[in-house]
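Notes to self after the Tuesday call (sharing in case useful).
The group wants a holo model before anyone commits to mutagenesis around the pocket. I volunteered. Ligand is pyridoxine-5'-phosphate. Logging inputs and output together so the record is complete.
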Amino acid sequence: MRLAINIDHVATIREARGGVEPDPVTAAGICELAGAEGIVCHLREDRRHINDRDVRLLRETVKTKLDLEMAATEEIIRIAIETLPDLVTLVPEKRQELTTEGGLDVAGNKNYLRDAIKEFHKQEIDVSLFVDPTAGQIEAAHEIGADMIELHTGEYANARTEKEAAALLDVIRNAARLGKELGLGVNAGHGLNYVNIRPFASIKEIDEVSIGHAIISYAVFVGLDRAVREMRKLVEEK
Ligand code: PXP
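Result:
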């Protein structure tokens, strides 16, 4: 399983003072040197953390794989097509939310999303759809031509008991299996941390996890290099 790291929170700290540091572009380099296999950033419509300059520089400097997380709006699609990331992950976006709150309703927006996917494919950009781990959404993602799905792990991450977590992990496992049966790449993310990631290493159908908040938070205390290396180990463990 690969580890992709979301560096939005580094930009959030920068924006707290509106200055130039800490720089998420520097963070991306450190993450890669410590073993990250991909860098994820979310260019939000309100530019609350990552901005256009970051995306431009990340495109120039990221050596592994740049995943641009984004809402499928006209403006952001245009920027993505100019930037040419390796991958876009389409997510729903609400201005008031603190972070992405749920998966995309692919089944309810097939035509719009199919057209957006075609635009990206013309530029040879792979497209991942962030979906709740349900058969209906995964089948819809396959039907409209997505290359991969990212399974929303937020509910699993918020489980309050071990029993609940185990049941939700089964839901993710089954969803990952379905994705693979349909020939999709399968990523997973949201709310994963140094504890709840452990059982994921046993789900062979998940190609990659995308983790942000837990790694950047831990890095505040132990440094980014160590925070990334420790997560790399957990992701590799069988
Ligand atoms: N995947 C997606 C689609 C997300 O929106 C986010 C949050 O930006 C993440 C992964 C990473 O979530 P977290 O910061 O909770 O690790």
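Two things stood out.
Residues 2-236 form a domain with the TIM Barrel fold (CATH 3.20.20.70).
The two ends are 10 Å apart (CA to CA).
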